[in-house]
Amino acid sequence: MIERRRLLRLGLGLGLLAVLVVVLAACNPIQVSPSPEATAVAGATATPATPAPTASSTPEPTPFILHPAELKADPISVLAWLFTPIYQAFLLLLVGIDLIVPDIGIAIILTTIVVRTVMVPLMRRQMVSMRQMQAIGPEIKEIQRRFKNDRLKAQQAQAALMKERGISQAGCLVALLPLFLILPMYQVVREGLTAADITPMLTIFGFQVLPVTCDPASLGPCLDPHIPWLGGINAAHFEGMIPLPFELPILGAGISMFALVYTVIQLAASRLALPAHTPGAQLDQSARTQRTMAIWLPFITILYGSVIPVGVFIYLIVSTIYQVIQQFLTTGWGGMFPLFGWTPGFAVDHKPRFPVAMPQAPASTASQPRPAGAPARPKPERSALDRSASAESTIRRRGRQGRRGRRR
Q1: Whole-model pTM?
Q2: pLDDT at residue 32, as a whole number
Q3: Dist CA 86 CA 21 (whole Å)
């Protein structure tokens, strides 16, 4: 149990570090190119007397132009340069779909479906591994109980059990991959849908991949960020806020209705990922904690919903719906029911469309009289008394052979 906690802390720490690195890298790929007039004003020599501000001396607004990150000597620039292809891939996919379907809302939905479809094999492996590990959970707990004072033996026994049952545990990076992909999508929505010129980011090796024409002089966004079927709201802005009669330090002046929708769908996804609960069975402390976190963690989205653009919320909602469908087809209803003590008839003995092959314990044999379902045990070590007795018998046999040789 202590080892699991340390691994969990290490995984969370590495995940937060990776998120911080990607966020820092995401701040650099998008640069603003000043207009010639603004450059001339900035480079002009200062005069002794400051003239009164007039309409003619006011600098013109600078168009917002996207540029790939440049490779420089500092570490942040190197990371930004390495992550630029990810942002370009998301932007190219979104713009390409928007050229076919001139609706940025539908383009974001289709982009999400394409990304999640590409990730199906990885997520399927992660779901299968998680469900198989849940199936052998009681045996792992028994191993931890038997070797609670010897971590090395507990790890060896657990590895032998997983090898015996044919379970390959998926890495934590697979589970965190959907979280990492939120950051480039956030960058594309916030910056790609507000930039006056995105053609530099659509150019690879000097060739513009998509035929997009932008007019930086208009200072308006190159792509139309408005979603007609949502009342024309801007996908790059923080809209859809439900006003509150009071103002909270975190929530601000309201709650995002998109955050509420996403929270409800995330609750369903969290419940489906839990193992099925047998009525009358007692849950241990870790299982109760897992179920409690599955209920309360999705509500955190409401706290930061006011700083997520509408387009990113559309991506999150569609991505979670896709995850719910894939989870349902793979593992069925999972821990969705009982819900408030109620289990519908269609959820009883439900078989998923693509079920997970549960690991089976090998049958007992004469050479291995181990009951089915018992945890695999590492090879027992001989005690010091047994080793000394074996060494003494070996010395005696060698001594007899030597004496017989001298008699001959």
Answers
A1: 0.73
A2: 39
A3: 14
